């Protein structure tokens, strides 16, 4: 059996050197050649194969067929027994994929256009995602049970005409709707920042729900917090679930008590300590969210316009100044942040979370392989999802909507 690592080495898959689309077809074909949905990828994969067969040392198509299935020596291979299928849109580094694969899901299509995220995805799942969704030929998307999309929080203003689909033209969610309309998945599973609830006087969310309903889905939605699912992070996200017949019941999702950050920290690593003056408050109160505001950097203290009694607050109006205690939870890891941003108060010192700690408090398993680029790693994890939260929702989707155990 040929190993995936041999293929990726010979084809230099890792560099994604201008051939990402060919590799997307080829790797999707390798994953799906046996499950009856390979036709979406087969022709382009085989055309590409003609150009690379010498590198692979395989000369005939029979030999290509004979090498299938390949041995998936990657951190997150597909489950041996597939119980349902899903697609991973705006896949990022694959948070949805890890959660759904753990529940027996087989990913039959992925899309993500960021080069670094594509590299991380390929490294962990042995699949190069298809690129820009706005340029995607939706015919190649195979039939699937669950459509997953942690779509970007790109704000969009609707025309206000409450025309659903039409109102979203020119936005990324419009392309998700196109796929739903064409392939009619049993379940639609969307995730976004909490702010989506309030955006544009709540009209944006209403438009999304309205259009899903127009396409025949019964929709339910709820804001969930990652800290209720076993990770010490105050990360609130809206989850939207649509199904053709049944209303998804969020109350059945299993929650656990909030863990604390200090139980998730590295004992040893290259820590980045704060080497400038800071203040630690004597009295530290736990907020409802589980955050404990411990102090602040003394830098950029606002002097003008500070009301008596609010001196501490004025020092922390900028998030990078805040220091949080590890006896509580950590604030949400921000997206598009390349330096980690928050400071933590731990064992009498102030430092930042390490990259490994960031991935841990998003629930990424230890075996998740990190690409070699620190600022990208911070950005990618901030963009991702808290895996245990997605898994807890998906578990109930499986039971309630797919009628699987
Ligand atoms: C909020 S993140 C989702 C991350 C993902 N759920 C994860 O677990 O890592 C949104 C992702 O959409 C990608 N994206 C934005 N516009 C896109 C487009 N036009 N086509 C494909 N991907 C896009 C971004 O690069 C980003 O990785």
Strand order of the largest sheet: 2-1-3-4-7-5
Please give the CATH architecture of the largest domain: 3-Layer(aba) Sandwich
Question: What does the oligomeric state look like here?
Answer: single chain
CATH H-level superfamily of the largest domain: Vaccinia Virus protein VP39
Q: How far is the N terminus from the C terminus? A: 33 Å
Helix-residue proportion = 25-40%
Query: Which class of secondary structure composition applies to the elements?
Result: alpha/beta
Largest sheet: 6 strands, mixed
Identify the CATH class of the largest domain: Alpha Beta
Shape: globular
Q: Spell the H/E element sequence.
A: HHHHEHEHEHEHEEEEEHEEEEHHH
Overall pLDDT level: 89
User: How many separate domains?
Assistant: 3
As a percent range, the share of strand residues is 15-25%
How many β-strands, per DSSP? Answer: 13
CATH topology value of the largest domain: Rossmann fold
Q: How big is the Rg? A: 23 Å
Ligand inventory reads: S-adenosylmethionine
How many H/I helices? 12
């Amino acid at each position: 059996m040929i190993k995936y690592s041999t293929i990726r080495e010979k084809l230099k898959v890792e560099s994604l050197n201008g051939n990402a689309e060919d590799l997307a077809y080829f790797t999707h074909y390798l994953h799906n050649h046996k499950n009856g949905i390979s036709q979406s990828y087969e022709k382009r994969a085989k055309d590409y194969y003609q150009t690379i067969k010498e590198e692979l040392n395989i000369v005939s198509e029979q030999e290509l067929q004979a090498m299938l299935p390949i041995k998936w020596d990657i951190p997150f291979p597909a489950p041996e027994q597939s119980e349902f299928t899903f697609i991973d849109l705006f896949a990022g580094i694959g948070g949805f994929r890890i959660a759904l694969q753990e529940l027996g899901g087989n990913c039959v299509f992925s899309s993500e256009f960021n080069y670094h995220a594509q590299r991380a995805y390929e490294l962990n799942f042995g699949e190069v995602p298809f690129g820009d969704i706005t340029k995607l030929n939706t015919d190649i998307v195979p039939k699937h049970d669950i459509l997953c999309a942690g779509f970007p929080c790109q704000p969009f203003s609707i025309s206000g005409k409450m025309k659903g689909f039409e109102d979203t033209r020119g936005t990324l969610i419009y392309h998700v709707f196109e796929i739903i309309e064409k392939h009619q998945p049993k379940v639609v599973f969307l995730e976004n920042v909490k702010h989506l609830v309030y955006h544009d006087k709540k009209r944006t969310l209403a438009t999304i729900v309205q259009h899903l309903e127009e396409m025949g889905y019964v929709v339910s939605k709820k804001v969930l917090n990652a800290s209720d699912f076993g990770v010490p992070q105050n990360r609130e996200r809206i989850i939207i679930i649509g199904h053709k017949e049944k209303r998804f019941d969020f109350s059945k999702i299993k929650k656990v008590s909030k863990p604390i950050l200090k139980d998730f920290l590295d004992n040893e690593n290259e820590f980045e300590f704060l080497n400038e003056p800071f203040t630690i408050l004597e009295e530290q109160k736990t907020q409802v969210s589980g955050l404990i505001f411990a102090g602040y950097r003394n830098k950029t203290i606002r002097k003008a316009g500070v009301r008596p009694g609010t001196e501490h607050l004025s020092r922390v109006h900028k998030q990078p100044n805040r220091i949080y205690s590890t006896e509580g939870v950590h604030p949400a890891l921000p997206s598009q942040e390349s330096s980690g941003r928050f400071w933590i108060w731990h064992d009498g010192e102030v430092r930042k979370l390490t990259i490994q700690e960031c991935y841990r408090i998003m629930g990424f398993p230890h075996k998740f392989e990190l690409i070699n680029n620190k600022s990208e790693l911070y950005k990618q994890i901030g963009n991702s999802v808290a895996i245990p939260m997605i898994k807890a929702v998906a578990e109930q989707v499986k039971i309630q909507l797919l009628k699987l155990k």
